[in-house]
Write a structure and sequence with these properties.
Length: about 110
């Protein structure tokens, strides 16, 4: 996508070229941010799965004190995962909107709704 912006920028004024280069850089930043968020969400899922597995193991062994402790930890992990997931969805939505706005601006559609 960035290369398309740069290619088009070669035929326009220096101001437009600078805007296209800045937009391409911003789109790359958004892509990197999205990838980081995806990895964070996936790690949060893994933590919940690990907590669930530890709880199941303690239940099988009949470790009542540990079961109670691990249930609390699992609920904490789930709560934090929900927060990460909500943040992930919100930020991904914002990234999508920003990408679309950048593309609209550079396709000459910023005034059209």
């Amino acid at each position: 996508m960035g290369s398309d912006l740069r290619r088009r920028a070669a035929y326009e004024s220096p101001e437009h070229s600078a805007e296209f280069i800045a937009s391409a850089a911003r789109l790359e930043e958004l892509h990197e941010c999205s990838a980081l968020l995806r990895r964070t969400r996936m790690r949060a899922e893994e933590i919940v799965d690990e907590a669930r597995a530890l709880l199941a193991e303690a239940e099988q062994r009949g470790e009542e004190d540990r079961v109670l402790e691990l249930r609390v930890q699992l609920e904490q992990a789930r709560g934090l995962y929900r927060k990460v997931l909500n943040a992930y969805v919100t930020i991904c939505h914002n990234i999508t909107e920003e990408r679309q706005e950048i593309l609209r601006e550079h396709m000459g559609l910023s005034g059209a709704a």
